[in-house]
Amino acid sequence: MEQTESRRTRGRPRQFDLDEAVATAQRLFHARGYDAVSVADLTQAIGINPPSFYAAFGSKADLYSRILDRYAAQGAIPLPDLLSADRPIAECLVAVLEEAARRYAADPGAAGCLVIEGARCADREAKGAAGAFITAGEEAIYRFIAARYPDQAACIQDYMSTVMAGLSASARNGHNFDRLLATARLAGVGLEQTFALNRQGREK
Amino acid sequence: MEQTESRRTRGRPRQFDLDEAVATAQRLFHARGYDAVSVADLTQAIGINPPSFYAAFGSKADLYSRILDRYAAQGAIPLPDLLSADRPIAECLVAVLEEAARRYAADPGAAGCLVIEGARCADREAKGAAGAFITAGEEAIYRFIAARYPDQAACIQDYMSTVMAGLSASARNGHNFDRLLATARLAGVGLEQTFALNRQGREK
DNA sequence: TCCATAACTTACGATCCGCTACATAAATGG
DNA sequence: CCATTTATGTAGCGGATCGTAAGTTATGGA
User: Fold this and answer.
1) pLDDT computed for residue A37 by the predictor
2) A38 — contact with chain B (CB < 8 Å)?
3) Do residues A75 and A139 touch, judged by C-beta distance below 8 A?
4) What is the mean pLDDT of chain A?
5) What percent of chain B has pLDDT over 70?
6) How far is the CA of B25 from the C1' of C2 (A)?
7) What is the DSSP string of A84-109?
8) Dihedral (C-alpha) B82, B87, B93, B99: value to the nearest 10 degrees?
9) What is the pLDDT of residue A171?
10) Angle at A178 between CA B137 and CA B172, to 5 degrees
C-alpha cells in the first residue's frame, strides 16, 4: 500500500498557504528586485514571523531560487515553443523579442524580466541562481541560430541578449507595452536584414 | 583687491586630495553600483575616517551627485558633438551607439554606463540625480530626431534608450568592446532602414 | 602668544540586515 | 493518556548600515 496524498503530516499544521506565500514573495521580488526586498518585507507581506519563514523556505536566497523555478515554468518566455517552429529564423527571433515586450510590460507593478533583473543583484547566491537561467536561455537561442548559421550565431546571440536586457530595463523605466513592442519590432529589422543578406549570399 | 587663489584657507589643511578622492569614489561607484558601495568602502578606499568624509562631501548621495557632474563632463558620451554634425540622422545615431559601445567597455573594472546603472539603484536621491542626466540625454536625442522627423522621434528615442540600456547591461555582463560594437552596428541597421524608408516615402 | 578655524581621531547611537534559540501550541501515533 | 512531531510567537544575536558627538591637532591671523 502506498501512502495516499490525503494522509496528513504529523505535527502542527502550517497556518499559511505555501504557494500563496511564494506568489506573494515573487510579486515583491519582481517589483523591487532581490536586494531591495528584506526578509522583514517578506514576512510582513506573507503575514508570518521570521522562524516560520526560515522553516518553510530555508533562506531568502533559497526562496528566490524556488521562485525562479516557478517563474521559468509560468511567467518566462516559452523559448522552446517560439524557437522550435519551422518558420524562418528571423521571424522566430522577432517573435521572442515581441513576446518579451508583452511579458515585460504585462504587470505595471512588476515590470521587466524577473530573471534578467535578478541577475543584477549584489547577492552572490541569488545572482548565480538567476545567471544559470539566463545562460540556459542564451544557449537555447544560440543553438537555434547555430543550427543554420554557425558563423553568426554568437554575434546575433549577443544582440538578442542586449536587446532583451534593454527591453527589461525600459519596461522598468515605465515604457508600456505599445512602446516596448515598437522597440522590439525596430530591433527586429536588424535581424531580418541580416538573414536576408545571408540568403542572398548563398544564392549567388 | 580680490583675494588671490593662492590664499590658504584658515584652519587645519585637508590631508587628502579632494579630486583624487572623488576619482577613487567614482571608480568604486562605477565598478559596483551605488547601492553596493558603503560609506565604509569609500572612506577606506580614500584613506579617511567617516567625519572627514561627511565634512568634505556631505553625504554618500551628495558625493554621488558630484561624481555624476564629473562624469558628464569627462566620461559620458559627448552627445552635442555627435548629434550636431550635419551628417544623416541615422549615421549620427549609429555613431552614438558605437561610442556607447566604446565607452561602456573602456574599463573592464567599471563596465557599463555610470549614469544608466546609477538610475537603477534603490536610493531615491541617487536615483533622481542619475535620472535627471538620463532625461537630459534622452531629450537631446529626441530633439535631434524631431527636428526632421517629428512623427517618429518618440519611437526612435525609445529604441535608442533601450539599446543603450542593453549595451550597458551587456558590458556589465562581460561583453568586450568588439562584441558590443558588433551589437551596436546590428542595432544600427534598424535605424538606417527606418530613415531610408522615410526618404523613399518623401521622394514618391 | 593666543585665538579662531577647520580637519583630524575615537568612539558611539540608531537602525536595519539575515538569521536563530527557546519555549509554546497544535496536530498525529501509540 | 502521553510521546512525538512540526509550526508558531517572542525576543534577541552578531554584524553592517549611515551618520554624528566630543575632543584633539594643525594651521593662519591678530
Assistant:
1) 98
2) no
3) no
4) 93
5) 94
6) 40
7) SSSS-HHHHHHHHHHHHHHHHTT-GG
8) -40
9) 98
10) 45
pLDDT the model gives residue B7: 55
Whether B122 and chain A come into contact, CB under 8 Å, resolves to: yes
- Asked if residues B105 and B180 have their Cβ atoms less than 8 Å apart, the reply is yes
Q: How far is the CA of B51 from the C1' of D29 (A)?
A: 26
- Closest CA of chain A from B163, distance in Å: 6
Distance A15 CA to C27 C1' (A): 12
Which residue, counting CA atoms, is nearest to the C1' of nucleotide C5? B11
* Nucleotides of chain C touched by protein CB (<7 A): 4-12, 16-22, 25-29
The whole-number pLDDT of residue A55 equals 98
- A121-174 pLDDT per residue, tens: 999 999 999 999 999 999 999 999 999 999 999 999 999 999 999 999 999 999
Of 3.30.1780.10, 3.40.50.300, 2.40.128.110, 1.10.10.60, which CATH number belongs to A18-72?
1.10.10.60
